[in-house]
Each structure stands twice: as structure tokens, then as C-alpha cells.
Amino acid sequence: MSNPASINGGSAVAMVGKDCVAIACDLRLGNQSLGVANNFEKVFQFGHVFLGLTGLATDVITLNETFRFKTNLYKMREERDIEPETFANLVSTSLYEKRFGPYFVGPIVAGINSKTNQPFICSFDSIGCIDYSKDFAVVGTASDQLYGMCEGLYEPNLSPDDLFETISQALLNANDRDALSGWGAAVYIITKDKISKRYLKSRQD
Amino acid sequence: MSVTSAVSSDYNSGVSNVPIEHQFNPYSDNGGTVLGIAGEDFAILAGDTRHTTGYSINSRYEPKVFSVGDELLITANGFAADGDALVKRFRNQLKWYHFDHKKNLTIKSAARFIQHLLYGKRFFPYYVHTIIAGLDEEGKGAVYSFDPVGSYEREQCRAGGGAASLIMPFLDNQVNFKNQMDPDSNGTAKKELKYLKLDEVISLVRDAFSSATERHINVGDGLEILIVTKDGVRTEYYPLKKD
Amino acid sequence: MNHGPYDWGRPSDDTYGAYNHQIAAANNSQFPKMNTQQPIVTGTSVIAVKYQDGIVLAADNLGSYGSLARFSDIERLLPVGDSTIVGISGDISDLQQIERILDDLQVQDSYDMEKPNLKPEHVHEYLSRVFYNRRSKMDPLWNSTIVAGLSSTNELVLKYADLLGVTYSSPAIATGFGAHLAIPLLRRKVETEEDASKLTEEEAVELVRNCMKVLFYRDARSIDKYSLAVISQSRKKIDIHKGLRCEDMKWEFAKHIRGYGAPQL
Question: What does pTM read for this prediction?
Fold first, then answer.
């Protein structure tokens, strides 16, 4: 467990539905096997774009601040909020700048393009390689479990309510099979004109 | 190629010659994944039929789930040579059990015996995840699963091998209804446990394996499901993606 | 007297010289027991494929000493009994050890049985257990082998066994480099047992001979001289063709290769 990306633990997942996207994360922050906090959210909002950040907690915090800074500058220069596709490229280039001394993170981006109304999700590796996805994207210490759950539960064109149920079940059951993830969860359901955030009750072991 | 290199200091009295430069590795990973589920009056044990070393597919059909008699199913997934050796030893001892006692081996006894086979090699372990399935003394479905050195437990379901981490949470959710609530209780009561029917179990197993095939490179080619009921053992085969 | 904490009470090195630890060591050799080896003289790939009436098997005649093409007349297809061929790649001295082990097995079989009874399924079982027992003693026989033949029920047997005791069966098998270069070519024709049942003997021989040519082109530890065995179910017979050559090769491309070896002017 000298892998920096799995010291603190944590997972996140994003899914595409019909005219909606969802992004969710667990709330645990740990020091190896010791749980330290149960309110460490890993999904951050920049305008109408959402970023899930798992991995080394210090890098999660640093990158959140970095992207807050960069998206604020973007908004001042462009006089509009950044779109998900653009933000994905910002994440990618920012991570690649540190190609030979990377941030130990697993990011995912989710959002709906405000011009085209197209749902968008993608994930990255720690040095910024973008993995575009039409269905779901997973990152974090429970990524294997999340892949299994999502492959099993996901179907295309789900309504916002059904998408909430699907992503929640995927995250909850994946987290219960990962010692480093869990201790609660937060789920965002994003449609063109509404964003809902819900906390989930989950196993506390 | 120097055979001796001195690792010594004033306070080191040990043998200072270090001849180890290349060590033979007696283990390899032959991929694949397996899955056992117990029903009310049946049990199934399923495995994919792909056999690999590294990135090479050695065979697209090499069965690894076996019916060994006495309505017992067994699989030992991981390092195939150890898996085969374990199953062979079990079969052989089962034959002797029949000679000596003139009766069938119960799954409970089979499980305890396998613990001894595995623990007997505690310091040079069989590199396998072992699962057995069958019917217990009351005719109820039973699945026992083992770690490489013989710790074991009776369970309702268990996934083993390369894609166990992908399949196991799916099984928790769909077989044991983990994290599911009773829709009428407004989130106050858990969904009640019930035994799944055989056709429901088969379709779950097929879903689990096609999901694992999609995301795990060592899983694919074919799915072989062995089903044990009071009427005996039956085998079903379904193709999986070959890529 | 030596006053260092680990050597306290021992004769002083200044007076008597350094203490020879081997004197008291239980293991009186210079090293701990060593039986782990590395292959020395090696044979490269063996390839085999099933067809509608049997199996075609091939292996070249080279024994390599590292990158040196040391021996050019090594026979790596061994007949065992009258219905089995064992193709062996890997260490050649271990190959010869296996040859002796299988010879003993045949002698024992001819003592025990009234007529030859040693079939490929028995040879494969025996060989794979020899491999597994040797690996369990951490003293492996450094080989990958293919066992092919006609079983006691006159059915085709085509199985693999290697130094770890790993075994498997498939309608197309290749060891070593063949697993990477020949298997894709073999599987293009024979992916399943059903495909095999449609392949004629002539097609199978041509397929295997083409694979041997491709292996000679790209495997640097190969030679263009090889043996090819044809096992036939209907004829109940095995033919081993020795000293075959890779034919119809085109080496035009070779003179365009730049960057390695002596510069060509």
C-alpha cells in the first residue's frame, strides 16, 4: 500500500441517461485502513460542469482549487461558464503538465452542454488521458467493483429517477466490497434545468 | 555473470556469498473466473472456458468446473497446474472413501477434507480459489468457498478468480438483495430475502459472465454451467465473446 | 581475541586470518543447495493442428546455445509407442532426459502388457505429472511440450504440458514463439473442433509448412530445416517426414533493411 492513489481511498462514478447525467461519490477519507472522516466529498461543481476527483486527498483538494481558479479565469475572459467538453480538455492538459511528477488522482467529468443539450461524461488517468464514454465512467479504489456493477445494471436512456436508482445501487454495492470506499455517498442528478443532490445512507463498516 | 558478491561488514558473521541471481518461479496465472450459487433445492457452479498465460489465449475450451461424483461439483481457479492437482487428489481420495465406507461423501465432509488438502500445503500453497457446490443433508443447495490455504465458509453465493471483484458486488445486490429496500416500506424495511428460481439464477450467471467478459481480458470464449439437483448433474454451455 | 560483538571470543583475525564460516556451516558446499537452472541449449517452437483425419505436428532441427546456432540436426519430435508423438521445445538436455524417461515408460509398458498399450492420453498424463513433481521440488525440466496421437478409442488427442505442470487442450497448439506467430495463422483456419473436421490432410500440411516458413522468417532462433509428423486416424498410422526445408521464400526485402549489422554499400 505504498501506492499514493490508494492511501486515502474513495471512488466515483458517472452515468448518462435520457437528457440527463448522474455523478456520484463516496464520503470516506481514510489513512490506510483507519477511517478519518465521513464527510469528504469528491464531486465538485464548476458552473454546470461536475468533476469527480478520487485518489490522494491532498491532490484532490489542490486540484479542486486549481480548477476553481482556472474556471473563474475562463469565465472572466469568455464571459460565460465553461462547457463539459472544454473542461475535460482543461483537466487533461492540466494533468499532462505534470507528466513526470503527476497528481495521484482519478478524475471524472459529467455535465450537459448548455448549447447542444448533449449529456457528456468522461474519465481520465492520472496523467490526463481522456476516456470518453457513452454509458458510464468509473474511478477510484473500487473501480473494479464499479465496472462489474455498471456492466450489470446499466441500460441506455434511463429517466432521471431510474438513473438515480441505477447509479446509487452501483456505487453502494461496489463500495460495500471495497474496504477503502464507503462511509456514505453523495449523488448528483443533472438535467438541462435542474440539479438535484442527494446523500445516501450506507453501511458504516 | 558474477556468482559471488560480498555483502559483509565488520559486524556481519553470516555467509557473505549471495548466489541467488535468478529464481525459478513455480507459479503462473491461467486466468478465468468462476461462480457458485446455491438455490433452495439446487446449486450451480459456473466457469468460463478460456485458458491463458499472460496475453496468450492457450485454449478457448478448457473446462475447469468438474462433476466428481456424489453430486458434488468442484472448481479450483487460479494456477491451473495446482488446480488440476487439487481436483485430481480430491477425486482419488473420494474413490478411496467409497472403498472404505461404502457411502456417499456429504458436501460438509468434502469441504472439511478440502481444507486439509489445502492446509497440507500451507507453506507452498496451491495458488487457487476453490469453490465446491452440491446439496446438503437436507437436500438444500450448498456452496462452500476456500482461500488458497484452506480457510472456508458455507455461503449462498461466491465468485472466484480474475473477475471476482467485478462479479461479487453484483451478486450481493441481485442474490442477497444487498442495499435494496421494500418498495412499500418507504425506506424503512429491507427487501426480504427469498430463494431464486433456477432460470433466474441462470440468467444472473449469464449476465455476470458477459459483464466480466466485457471488462476483463482473461475472461471469455465460453461459459459452462454445471447444475446439481436431486435428479443429478446437468451441464449447460453458452458462448461468450472471443475478443 | 576478537572483541567485535558478533565474533566475541573467536580467535583474532589479525593473528589467525579471517574465520572460515564454512567449517561450521551445516551445508558444507560453497552455496545453498542449487537445483534451479536455466535453459542452456534450446529448441524453439513446436506447432500442431488438428484436421479431419488426424493431427499435423512440426518442429525444426536447431539446437541454439544462446544466440549461437550450435546444433543443426536435433530431432525434437519423439515417437512414443506406436500411436503417440511428443514434440518438445526448451532445454535440449532436459529433452534427452524426457526421452530416457519415456523410453523407460515404454519398456515398463512392454513388460506389463501383452501388446503395446501406451496411448497418448497416458503419455500426456505421465509427462505432465513428471513436470509438476519436478516443479514442486523446485527442480524443473525446462520444456514446453505437445503430445499428439490416437487414443485407446482411436480418437484424436492433442494436448500441451510444460515445466510448471500446466496442461491444456486445443485444436491448434504452439509453444514458444509459435504461440505468437503461428497460432493466429492456425486459428484463421482452425478456430474450433468443427473447423478442424473440415480441414483436409493436404490443407493441414500446407498450413503447418507455411507456419514453419513464417517462423523461420521472424524467429531468430529457428532454422529452415524441420521435421513434420502426420498422424492419421483412418490409416491408424503416424508418418514422420524428416529434413524438410522451408521453400519458396522471398528474401528481396532483406537488402533494404538498414540500421543493423555491417553497413551495405
Answer: 0.91
